[in-house]
Amino acid sequence: MSHFTTIAIEIKNGDLLEQTLQELGYPVKQNTLVRGYLGDTTQAEYVIPMPNAYDIGFRKLGDRYELIADMWGIALNVEEFLGAIAQQYAAKTVLHSASQQGFAIEQQEVLADGTVKIVIGRWA
Predict the structure, then answer these.
(1) 3-class DSSP state for residue 74?
(2) 70-117: pLDDT as tens digits
């Protein structure tokens, strides 16, 4: 019986997801197996290998990704983990989109409360 749980997340760009995970300090492997309870495995596009043999994976489902992991084995607060990913990914998405549309990044900073402030501009 599989112990894997999937959580739908609002992430569409795999490259930005990988960059986000790396910037948050997680090592990332591509297109490999997610390890779970009693050696159970499942495939995912991006995998964070964990030292306790319970990995965290991100698998493409339609136009979005989902998190897949054996929640009993991973030793982290999933809400905080996903919150950090969502914030970093959102900032990267804004920066990427602004750059593609010809905007310049004038300022980027993380405020004391954790809010990311981005100022973009473009000469008309």
Answers:
(1) coil
(2) 998 888 899 999 999 999 999 999 999 998 888 988 888 888 887 888
Cα distance between residue 18 and residue 103, in whole Å: 24
Phi, psi of 74 (to 5 degrees): -80, 135
**C-alpha to C-alpha distance for 122 and 18, rounded to whole angstroms:** 28
Q: Domain coordinates of the chain in residue numbers?
A: 5-121
Residues contacting 25, CB < 8 A, separation 6+? none
Q: Give the Cα separation of 19 and 21 in Å (integer).
A: 6
Q: What is the DSSP string of 34-53?
A: EE-GGG-EEEEEEEE--TTS
Give, as one character, the DSSP assignment of residue 79.
H
Is the pTM value of this prediction over 0.90? Answer: no
